[in-house]
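User: Thanks for the earlier help. One more: Histidinol-phosphate aminotransferase. Can you show the sequence and predicted structure together?

Assistant: Of course, both are below.
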Amino acid sequence: MRLKKLRYRSKLNCMPSYDVVEREWKIKVNANECGMNLPPMVEDRVMGRLSRIAFNRYPNEDLEQLMEAIASNYGLQKENVLIGNGSSEIIEKLFFAFGGRNLTIAYPQPSFSMYRIYAQAAEARSVVIELNPEDYSLDVRQFIQKVNDSKAALAVVCNPNNPTGNALTIEQIEDIAQHTSCALLIDEAYVEFYGQSATCLLKKYPKLLVARTFSKAYGLAAIRCGYLLGDKAVIDMVKKTFMPYHMDVLTLVTADTVFQMRDEYVPRIQQMIAERNRMTEQYKTLPGFTVYPSQTNFILVRCDLAAELNEALAAKGIGVRCFGNSAGLEDCIRISMGTREENDAVFAAIKAFAESEGQK
């Protein structure tokens, strides 16, 4: 029996899809994940708590406990915290809260690719501010002007920025907050590798929102947990876009344990920063490669044969992120930091490719 023509939501057919299908890589450095699993002490504590879960109960107390722990860390109240399935879900809900017909959301480009998709889903108008093509810097004055001229309901800055790796200073973020009137989201998915957080501005600017995630520095990409910090009135409105009991207990217990034991991750974060700096200098030695400064757990490089390099690496079982002909990212490859051994192996493969091409 043939399926009859169904009536889908208007413009759904025009929505792009975010491809998350993966192959089995020998070395996987294409998704900005942490190359290490839970520290042993953290794993023991997580497993112990998971063994005592009441699976027949809804996740009320576990949610409250995590909210209180996060709020206490930032000198806030639990009403200033919103938990979501990764910072990605939080950003999506923010776009729904501040989007809709005749409303505008402003963000830089190139940046997190989902901003455009979330804006389309929310049926909001996008105002895109192009980064400087030479070094991917954001012209803060131009950003402020376009946000104000477009009468944006929400402005978004990924800091440090994905996939370019660079970052604004706290002074620049405050400049934006001070000279715009709309809600301002600072997406801090990679802030642990940078060290400068806009959370210090939250009490001064009630319209400011900060999104964080457990997926990167804390290696919890598998459980999907993030949080939003902001003024209670804003949090209350954004909360309306979430379903009841949208967080599961396994995620909440794991995230809460990791947050309580986050000091265990300090050496790991320092190690990832050291590897990023070491590999940045290594890639600078390759002829024909442009290496962009990074404050994250990845490095963005540009070379003329990026597509061919990507194929050569894939043939060796190495997965990196090649941007192909994406606007502003032509011939760019993003390389996440893995373990020291993985980083050396990836570099050796790229160096061999560069040298073989140079001999042609």
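User: Great, one quick takeaway?

Assistant: Residues 266-284 form the longest helix (19 residues).
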